[in-house]
C-alpha cells in the first residue's frame, strides 16, 4: 500500500481536477453534456446542488479551462499562485470542517452545498492546489511526456518520477517504441 503524500480529500480532489482537465485533451470533447458531467461527478463523489442544465455544463467547462491554465504554468510558481489565488477569490472559498457517514474523517469543504456546482468544485480544487503549493510540491503537476499527448497528470509517486499520463496508454506505447528502436539498432 502506498503512503499518502497529502490528506485523502486533497489527493482525491487533485485527481478530480486532473481528470476534469483531461476531458478535452484526449479523444476530443468528453464533457459532452449532462450525462457525461453526472458520470464524472459520481466518479468523484461530488455532493450538493446540481442544476442539471446546459449552463452548469458550460460553467464546469470554463473551470476546466482555468485549471488547465494552472497546469500549464506549473513551472512558474508565482504565476501558479496568482491563478490559484484568483480561483479561490472568484469562488468565494470559505473553509469549514465537516464529515459524512460515508467519509467519517474530518475534512474541509470550502463552499456551501447550495452554491453552484462549478463554484464549489473550483473552491475545492483551488484549495487542493494551494495545499500542493504550500507543501513545495507544485512540480507534481505535469503534462504527459509522450510527444503525441497533451494530457495532464498529477504525479503522486513518492519520488515524483511519473512522466506519462494514464489516459492513453502513453507510458506503455513509449516503452514499446524505445524497445523496438533498440532492437533495430542491434
Automatic annotation (TrEMBL):
Top-level taxon of the source organism: Bacteria
InterPro entries hit by this protein: ABATE, ABATE_dom_sf, Znf_CGNR
Xref: Gene3D superfamilies: Jann2411-like domain
Residue ranges constituting the Zinc finger CGNR domain according to the UniProt record: 140-183
Official protein name in the record: CGNR zinc finger domain-containing protein
Organism from which the protein derives: [Mycobacterium] fortunisiensis
Top-level taxonomy: Bacteria, Bacillati, Actinomycetota, Actinomycetes, Mycobacteriales
